[in-house]
Amino acid sequence: MRKKAKRKSAPRVKARTQPKKKGFKKKRTALRSMAAPDASAGGQKIVTALGEINLGEKIITNSARGTFLDCRKKFLWEYAYRLATRGITDYFWVGSVCHEEWDLMYQRGKFAVKPFRKRLNAAIEKALALCVNEDQSDKVWKGGACIGGLIPSYAEHYLERDLDQFEIVATETRFEPIEIPNTSGWRYGGIRDMLVREGGELGLWENKTAGGIDAGYIARLPLDFQILGYVWATQTEMEEELDFIMYNIAQKTKLRGRQGEAFPSLLERIAEDYAVDPTKYFYRERVPFDQRSVKNFVKELSAFCGELDRAIKDGYWSMNTRRCADRGICPMMPLCIEGPKPDLLLQYRRKASQHEELESKKKAKAA
Ligand code: SF4
Fold it and tell me: Cα(15)–Cα(320) distance, rounded to whole angstroms?
């Protein structure tokens, strides 16, 4: 039996991750003025190209499907015209850095605080360079403080136990898009977080970062039908049925900086809070499913593609205004109000592809 790992004290993150205020402001101003000519050129290009809807390879992901179901107009802006707001969206950024860290620790079977801090510093620097205003950069600092506490505490709490309990079959992997039956050539693509075996059973592991984990959040997990798409894709690829889905949820801290508090002190407070009681931040749920639900999901996916084809053919993209202020103000709202005017389009960039998130990930290994 493995010895119980000694609890490490809360990680200290170096003060050098926070640039001096004066220099920082200068850097932001320089970035803004550098961004302006590029943005203008990009804006003009978009105006010329906005008439064309090009859905490229006809791939549907869970996030594209979710966007269409939420608001078709948003799908039009984000996936048909491939528009995205410039800069960083904090809740996506925190989630994506955490996912990379989880991927790394299970891939290597170990975690060390020092190299983690280096990677985090680099991620913060990289994100800051993309920020287009101080509100975004503030959110990056806060997000960085959260990740600085969350990841080491998670590793301390779970990693050794998990490596004893589960065989890691595959870490984060992009699966090859698979053909959706009875459609005009649509395929389903995505990235699954991890595949594990436990006592001969094969499980799909889904990592999530959440703002809060309450009874409502947990009660809704069995209704997360989108995950069945990953089950379907994995089963098709591996020619083996999955037995369970494991939700691995980490809650983001609600601690905020106090008036006049230096950034390193905030980092330390958050790290301490995560380390003292990890159970208040981490939650797991093994959710059962049956093969009939997977088949139903695929059927629903085929019908969904029919709806999408109709919207493209008719050019009818309805607005669902009930979604406009769901997670703060929808970033596409100026476009919905004023239309794609050249000056408005300067706030947006054209994505290289509809599903940028798929481009950066490695392909699935042959099963
Ligand atoms: S602002 Fe509202 S209507 Fe427009 S895309 Fe966003 S959610 Fe849809």
Answer: 45
Does residue 35 line the site of ligand 1, with CB under 6 A? no
Give how many domains the chain has, as a whole number.
1
320 lines ligand 1 (CB under 6 A): yes
pLDDT at res. 90: 66
Confirm whether 146 is domain-assigned: yes
Q: Tell me: the pLDDT tens digits for 293-340?
A: 999 999 999 999 999 999 998 989 999 999 999 878 999 999 999 988
What is the CATH number for 250?
Answer: 3.90.320.10
Model pTM? Answer: 0.79
Beta strands per DSSP E along the chain: 59-60, 83-85, 167-170, 173-179, 187-192, 194-198, 201-210, 244-251, 282-287, 348-350
Cβ of 319 below 6 Å from ligand 1: yes
367: three-class secondary structure by DSSP? coil
364 belongs to a structural domain = no
**Is 1 part of any domain?**
no
Question: What range does the domain containing 255 cover?
Answer: 21-359
| Residue 2 falls inside a structural domain | no
pLDDT at 267: 86
Check pocket membership of 74 for ligand 1, CB cut-off 6 A.
yes
CA-closest residue to ligand 1 atom 7: 324
**Closest CA to ligand 1's atom 5:** 74
